[in-house]
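Q: Entry one of two.
A:
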Amino acid sequence: MTHETQNGKIPYYLIVMFLLLSVTIWVGGYLYYEDQKKEIKKDKLEDLSAIADLKVSQIVNWRQERLADANNIFDNKLIIPHIQQFLAGSSAYKQEIFRWLESIQKYYLYKNVILLDTEGNIRLKVINGQEVIGPDAKRLAEEAMQSRKIIFSDLYRSKVRDVIRLTIAVPLLASKGSDTIPIGVVLLRIDPYQFLYPLIQSWPTPSRTAETVLFRREGNEVLYLNELRHKKDTALNLRFSINEERLPAAMAMRGITGVNEGVDYRGVPVLAVAQPIPDSPWFLVTKVDRDEIFAPIYDRLGFVVFVVSLLILCTSITIGFIWRKQNAEFYREKYETEMGKRELAERYELLTRHANDIILSLDQDWKIVDANKRAVISYGYTLDELRQMNIKALRAPEARALLVSQMGQVQEHEGLVFETIHQKKDGTVFPVEVSSRAIEIEGGKVYQNIIRDISERKKAEADLLESEERLRAVIEAGMDGIIVVNEHGKIVLFNAAAEGLFLYSSDEALQKPASMLLLEETADAHQKRVEKFLSNGVGQCGHIGRRTERTFRRKDGSKFDGEITMAGGRSESARLVVVTIHDITERKKSEDEIRKLNEELEERVIQRTLQLEDINRRLEDEIIERNRAEAEISELNKLLQHRALELEAINKELEAFSYSVSHDLRAPLRSIDGFSKALLEDYHEKLEGEGRDYLQRIRRASQHMGQLIDDLLNLSRVARNEMHQDLVDLSELVKEIASDLQTARSDRIVKFIIEDGVTVKGDARLLCILLENLIGNAWKFTAKLSGPIIQFGVIQYEGKPAYFIRDNGAGFDITYADKLFGAFQRLHTQAEFPGTGIGLAIVYRIVQRHGGKVWAEGETGKGATFYFTL
């Protein structure tokens, strides 16, 4: 290399470096291009997978919503009896059933809703245009009635009207004894072009080729179920063999789902994700043309080629500059290297000669080739004498046998630290620590030994071991239990006296938590105090450094009282707590006996002096008791006053909230009702019958909402207002309410049977509201009778009076009695009996505030009885 540089030639290694760098740059550019290609492909596949998951989730949700609609019809036990009567020939409920079917068709967006009887005849229908029942629909209806289950059909093309449909057949089951029988079927017909196909065809991001395909298997063919983006009239028409090797839909049919590459129905290469639709025979493929995915990377190819060429040019210029510079720096570097070697050798010589440790250099035969000044002083040999010796001669006779194995380990591991015994020229032996390492010097192997005299350390270790043995002997001989706990709360020392106290052996106690020696109720608190001390010092634990008494637990579960002293300590690496425990069980017994004797003596003295001090004691006790009572009354008055102020503030906030809710909700309702009324009055002639009916419905709904707000506010006030306990004549209240109802509705004649003299203690205002709601309910539910009767009376229930309101009206199904007193719980439709479902909730709140109980009994068509206690 030197010769070529001096003759002005470019060294071969620079040429090789240039070629390697050029190849590296080209390879790096290619790898960058491929990496970008993979990243774009990965991102697009992740997008496709996410879109596929989204589409599958949307389709599953759509199917579940449709099944939920069908289940609502299937489980509607209130409408089934009406439909049964209608199908049997009665027209009493025809309009109601039609409106119910119409609401299902309108609000759930079904194409048609059709009611069939058991013969497959159309009895009622809500349709858009003409409708007939084809063989497919009849087959679904028969299957639903036979299985008594909801049938969700697949997509099919009607044989009658040549349209694509989905149909849900809901069997209508009526009770017959302990069994159920089908009485008809409701067909919910879905137009897939209305929601399903647009849902499948939509794509969340802009794309010119992206597409979602829905398909299923028919025999050995794949049948496409939806209209495709790049081909028209494909729904239920386009088919391919399941053996098409690269077709993503056929691959899915063969069990190859997830991400794959293939060729779509146009013969165009695509990236696709295929997934099955759960709980259906359908599969879904989301796909994008391969050319669209890789279009961005083709644009970057020219840029990559330009950058790679530019980097190669820069590399050639840099190599030339390096070559020019090497000629100038070659000799300077050589000179500096030689000077550095000389300076390093001088520093090494100075370090070894004047080091405090012995340094010996050995050849491969372990002969000493060099030694420092400390070696000469330590062994008593001259430097020349040491250079004539083998390292074995410096060892004590008893340590020479280990030399071969130890030096073998040095050679094997290229270094070792070990302890041995060396011998001076005068025969004195001393322990040493040797750090031996094999090093290469000018092609030869040299062993460098750094040797430290460890006589003082060995003497200190022996003294420490002796001190520890003495301390252990003192601890084991102690009469009190001594336990040492480390910073983790584990026992690290457990003396013999502790074994006798706790009945644990030392082996059983060591490394166990100290808390096992304490009662469970005090163990956690004590452990936390000890941990706090160990982490922060003595000042953080109140028990450290002073005597305290504590109850301990033995191995057999028995308890004993002990006096403990805790002191902080520290080992080489951790904090410790030393606990001394003295058994004071006998002392506690003696103290208890002395205390009992003192108590008996005090009792005798008190009895002796009782007669003399009786009058004064009574006066003092009376004064103290009176002062204490006055103080307690004063505190209670303050507390009651504070509670009253808090309650008043809460009530004001609730009242303000109720007013705000009432005002904010009523304002838009009044606007809805007012504008609806204006439309009816001002545009009556311009509105068709259906438009006027819609506005009437809006008015009724807004008025009903207003009534709901009033009832909710009443319910809130009932639970919030202060109660006043008075003697209330319930009989008179019932008579007043009955009189008011008769006056307000003179067109009705209702017979009231009222028991006289029924009085209770309670809040007259709340009890009046309670009776108004119960009697108002009875009045409402007897409206359709020719001879209505409402009765008020009292019976005995569980040893106390229970008051009741009874009527012979519509009654209710006793199965739903537990829902009567919940807010908005109604057992009758709004058309049958208007109301909001709040009245009985108010009744329940009032009875609850009086500490009573309310319940109801009834039977459909035979009236109802409401009972309450106070």
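Q: Entry two of two.
A:
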Amino acid sequence: MGRSERGVRAVVIAVVFLIMAGCGGRSPLDQAISSTTGSGGRSGPLAGASSSDDANRYGGSMNPGSDSAADSGLSDARDIPERDTAANREVGRQLDATSGSAPDAGPSDRTDAAEASGRDGRTGDRLSGAPDIPKREANSEAGRPPDSVADSARDAGQSDSYDAAEASERGVLKLVAGGLGGSGDQDGVGTAARFSTPWGVASDGAGNLFVTDWDNRTIRKIVLSTGVVTTLAGHAWTAQDNSLDGVGTSAQLRAPMGMASDGLGNLFVADAVDTIRKIVIATGVVTTLAGSPGKSGNVDGTAATAQFGRIFDVASDGAGNVFVPDMDNHTIRKISVATGMVTTLAGSAGNPGWVDGTGSAALFNYPSRVAADRAGNLFVGEEGNSAIREIVIATGVVTTVAGALGQADSQDGIGVDAHFLPPTGMACDGAGNLFFADAGNDNVRRIIIATREVTTLAGSRSNYGSEDGVGADASFEEPTGITDDGAGNLFVADLSNHVIRKIVVATRAVTTLAGSADRAGRTDGTAAAARFNDPGAMASGGTGDLFVADTYNDAIRRVVIATGAVTTLVGPAGATDADTGGGPLSPLYRPIALASDGEGNLFVSEITGCRIRRIAIATGAVTTFVGKSCGNADGRGDAAQLARVTDLTTDGAGNLFVVDSSNYAIRKVVIATADVTTVVGPADLCGSDDISSISLSCWPRGAAVDGQGNLFVTDTSGYTIRKIVIATGTATILAGSPGKSGHVDGTGTDARFDAPAAIASDGAGNLFVADSSTVRRIVVASQAVSTVVGLPGHSGMELGPLPGRLSAPAGLVFAPPGDLFISDQNAVLVAQF
């Protein structure tokens, strides 16, 4: 698959421009890469990994106000944003399909395809105005080599796996199949630690590396000799708009990006495009050096009186000065650490261009990253010019080092003959070399400053991924921050892999220092050797098998519970599509909802959500069961109209229940006849039968039956669990309170949910609900709500004794021998209570 076909990933992790500020042994500042949209076209929101994962999976807006059946228009919604595990996991995830926008439904459902892991208090909207990073189609087979069993062994340093023979072992969370890894916020050692969109890196020259963990709003510390990762400052899951000076985890950061070390025990961080924060490494004390949260402009001055346009990076000269590239003002600003005074070093505010010169006579075009060497020079990477410029700090003289106007591609060469996409991180080694991360080309480049010669050090434009190796055999996925340790090593924030990589410059050898990349793929195999790509809904076959909607593989996979063996029932090619007579294309497109009738059939809804497909388990044949065009109409078979079916469940009595989310309705399908009727409509489910008046407080998402004539529905936007008496259509609130989000265990309406999504019944009076990074249990008789799996406010899978940890549980099902199976990121887990 070509780079242009990879698609835009679901969480557009907008550019993070962290440029290294520590050439010559000091920590560099990273930057995340942005897509080249030509000179000046830098408006795209830093729409980070947020908005409801459900939304991404549903292929259309989740905005009740505009999601009527009439305007859903989803039949060909192919531009579905792909997974960013980046970032995966925030409030109100936007759907990139054809209509409306997702509601701010609290913490999102799933980072891309079904992620119910929103952040407490987050808004889902990232910083506006940041250049967007082009996202790839989630871990496509073409761009990523198959993972080996050895990969799974290193995933999280966890070997707990499910064994049906150990049914007597209770109170544990185990791996059934798939690969662990991906984003999270765990401290730990090496690959057991987790990051979420690491942006900038800096070295203190004393054996420690520091990382801006952007999506977690924290600064992490890595001891290089041991690989131990701890949190130095900030607190994961802090609301995005919070900016608070303080000590360690009591301080709050909004969106830490570029970072630099001054070699004197201090870190400087570009925080949320408008402020520079200072951190004293020894004490963890965080203060605001310059700028004011929420105030942008072009004002020189002292501390909070100064204003910046947009800043994503920072550099230190080690002599008491900090430099920032002010993107929107097209200038380079200088800050005196001692006084907080901000002045303009070079460039002319409001005048973009490409002119070498002195001070304000020089022109820049969206400068976004910087790095300083030990010889009094500052290097600037430009978004608009795809160039690297040099400034003599003492005189303000600006010259061009490398790059050519209008040549934003990939070519080694000297000076203007070298081409690259806008650098996303830069670092100097003190030995005459400038290194920069070329995120758009997924590689790391080197410039010999004296000769202006540009070469590719590691990675390859044609092979993005997370593989360790030497030179072009290694792969990166949007490398951003980069720094040098003064001993011949580079450290790179590999943003979309959520890991920190090490490059030995002399040998070009690349290894993973900390964190673990997503283990996505499409590989049949047993247990940890198998690979999924964002698995979501699951169904029990009732014969010791699980069926999994492997959403971004366009497949339905079968898992033998006893052994963890994974095979493909319906895949992207080679399956029979009776509607079209078969053919080379997948008969399914982004399957998101799945149910079994216990009679040898599976029912599937795709991301477009306007039809329900039937799969014969014995043959894998796929046919359309109900629906053809989007709309809102009862009827039989093709005559019925649905709009965004987000969940399916059967009652064991020949009926299929459908969560018709965009119509705010629950529909019933008699399986034998394909007759569709409405059980509950907007009036009972959402409190109104006028779709235009329904606010963002209703988004039915998941459903489960209890075998006692009751149907239970999760309302993601309303933060509630509804109970529906099927016979009468009467709907009441079982748990949670409309419009009140949070994570509070309790009884009935005293309980609080973040983003309730998938739901399952154990048939014994208990419901289990996927809620952000946790699974909650509701005892139906007493309405008591408790958290049984995962830790609220923390993400990243961790096996072992319950509650363990989850990232973004997407699918839940109870299956023999009575355990709860959970799909999470690229794995299927089991909780044995």
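A: Comment on entry two: DSSP finds three helices and 60 strands in the chain. Residues 1-159 have pLDDT under 50 and may be disordered.
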